[in-house]
Design a protein that fits this description.
Elements lengths: L3 E7 L4 H10 L3 E3 L2 E7 L4 E7 L4 E6 L13 E4 L1 E2 L2 E2 L1 E2 L1 H12 L3 E2 L9 E4 L4 E9 L2 E6 L5 E6 L1
Parallel strand pairs: 10-14
Antiparallel strand pairs: 1-5, 1-6, 1-9, 2-5, 3-4, 7-8, 11-12, 12-13, 13-14
Length: 151
Amino acid sequence: MVNKWFVVYTKSRNELKVQNHLISIGIEAFTPTRTELRQWSDRKKKVVVPLLPSMVLVRLDEKEAHKVFEIPGVVRYLFEYGKRAEVSNKEVLAMQAYVENPFSVQENKWVVGDTVQVPLFNQEATLLSLKGKNCIAQLNKLGAIVSFQLK
């Protein structure tokens, strides 16, 4: 049987630890992240932040689904309509590509609600927010929300 991608819910701020533990026991796991510059009163620091808070994507056979509970920090699977929530391989590949290659787009005269072509994904998306040169859009096919900057 083909391995599927499932969503595992973790304790707060345990996503990367859980991912590393899952990989160490031989389970393919992915946590999309971004680097943010955080500021405290005395310093600034670059911090790695998960794009999906408290969630890790795991790829395994349904017969092995119980193995994730051997890892500290795993709470449960995410369910949708009474079944474990599945994520298509195409969506995972798109997230991996986005994390590896954030992109910029030539400036256009867009308004919220417009349908735009998002590079890298080669998909249409509906523009949700436009603040200065920062855009947030929802991919029409995948339903994922992406952000990008205008040049």
